[in-house]
Amino acid sequence: MSLAVVTPPSEPAVSLAEAKAHLRVDHADDDALIESLVAAASDLVEAYTQRRLLTQALDWTVPAFRPVLVTPLAPVTADGVVSIKYRDAGGAQRTLDPSAYIVRCGAGEHGPAVIRPAAATTWPAPDYNTADPVVLRFTVGFGAAADVPAPIKAAILLVAGALYANREAVVPGTSSPLSLDTAPAVTALLIPYLWEP
User: Fold this and answer.
1) Domains of the chain, earliest start first
2) What pTM value is reported for the model?
């Protein structure tokens, strides 16, 4: 299985201005550094929660149809499954008619998409000898930066702040690595958004 970004987000989850206000930085000398730390903190939060924060389109390549397909990331909205393609016996890529499958989003609009064949239908048999027998394109994310929940933004700011204050892999004066597991406030902020595929 693999995931590829088709359409990336057009903005960061936390703006440079928001980060500088949190860090109490009023000069431009560290702007590039702060932007990179916000990006790293956002990636860390996304990996920890198994979510994508900002709307983006992804291609998920799987080796075969399963009885039920569950997207490996959340949140997927009700119209978030864009297409399902597969390679037929001749190797040609075909697009499934949307009437051939049912999409349900778990946990309202904050969960993954659960996809199964429609009543009285079955998945087609893809050509398993190709590199991309089944490709599901879906959109994921809370929306724009303004739509990202406040606790997630706060967690990003806390992680970026810790990275900005501590430029080493270990917190100074301790033997503790800088991680989410050693940051109870960050973990507490993210617990409501944890999702494991």
Assistant:
1) 13-53+146-193 (1.10.3230), 56-140 (no CATH)
2) 0.84
